User: Fold this.
Amino acid sequence: MAQHKSAEKRARAAKRREEQNKAWKSKMRTALKRVTSAKEKDRATEELRKAKKLFDQLAAKGVIHRNKAANSKSKLTRYVNTLK
Assistant:
């Protein structure tokens, strides 16, 4: 357990950040599923646009690494391009 006031504050802040990051990562997984579950190209393209924006936001916030964001966006784009 934390012994100093500053350590207690850091523990509280870490818990808060953990909850926020958990929520952001849940949104990320949902966005992935929405793109991959879309069977029509028009719908998938629209969901891809939203997912790309979300990945950029997560990378900017530091929730995920920028290379992970780039890799995920690339993978989803390749998937959408295979749809007819």
